[in-house]
Design a protein that fits this description.
254 residues, alpha+beta, four-stranded antiparallel sheet, three-stranded antiparallel sheet, 7 helices
């Protein structure tokens, strides 16, 4: 059996009732998130996340499928929203962070990927001194019930994100774009591999197609995405306050 971990996740394994798991303390940010300059964002999160982050479309298979992502930094391994104190609490903290050290992942058995996903946990979080998630009779604790609800709802929401991406891609609304920023320090930063909705094409859609997007809830998310692109200016301001003098390598989202 092979397990495919989510984007950038550490090594994971299926969760067992006998596992004892070290739970993050309030305000903690997983180590792997400190070096993520992009992060998946789900359908329901988009209207909230658009207040703080640029939201873009990204593809890892040459346009066959797309994902919605928030931009966290202007170069590789740069997360401008994390400090030694954790994630900036003045902004929205994505569910991708809050669900750690758990996730749901696809499993491959005999070279065939199953449709259903299984609950998994990061291997390094499973230790003898960790917290039990089930009692001796196999009944889930209240803490685990709340976490499992978050996982299930988030997984369902990711499917809605996939449907959103497919809807705009099928209408040929996505276009590639790059972003370049010159910081006060003199550094030049560039992001490539991003896609956005073409507003001209969106406005030229037939009324029936626009109504269909609105009915499905896609249109409101598209407008949230477009509004969020203004946050690149705020992201540049964050980077300018932290970046040492000099140039920085370009970061690709591909």
């Amino acid at each position: 059996m092979q397990i495919t971990p989510p984007f950038a996740y550490p090594e994971i394994d299926t969760l067992k009732k006998t596992d004892r798991v070290v739970m993050p303390k309030a305000g903690d940010t997983p180590r792997f998130c400190h070096e993520l300059h992009v992060m998946p964002v789900s359908y329901t999160e988009i209207p909230v996340a658009q207040r703080d982050y640029p939201i873009v479309f990204v593809t890892a298979d040459n346009g066959a499928t797309y994902m919605t992502m928030v931009i966290l930094g202007l170069k590789a391994k740069q997360n401008l929203f994390v400090s030694p104190l954790g994630w900036d609490r003045s902004v929205y903290v994505p569910a991708y962070v809050r669900r750690f050290p758990f996730c749901m992942a696809k499993v491959t058995v005999d070279n065939t990927q199953r449709d259903e996903r299984v609950v998994c946990v990061v291997k390094e979080a499973v230790v003898p001194e960790g917290n039990p998630l089930f009692d001796a009779s196999g009944t889930p604790t209240a803490e685990w019930q709340a976490l499992e609800k978050l996982l299930q709802e988030y997984e369902t929401d990711l499917v809605r994100s996939e449907e959103l991406c497919k809807a705009v891609a099928d209408l040929d609304l996505l276009e590639p774009f790059n972003m370049q920023a010159s910081l006060n320090s003199g550094a030049t930063l560039q992001l490539t591999g991003m896609y956005r909705v073409n507003e001209v094409k969106l406005n030229e859609l037939e009324p029936a197609k626009l109504q269909d997007l609105a009915r499905k809830g896609v249109l409101s998310r598209v407008y949230s995405h477009l509004l969020s692109l203004e946050n690149f200016r705020r992201l540049t301001d964050r980077a300018a306050s932290m970046e040492p003098v000099g140039s920085a390598p370009a970061a690709s989202l591909q």
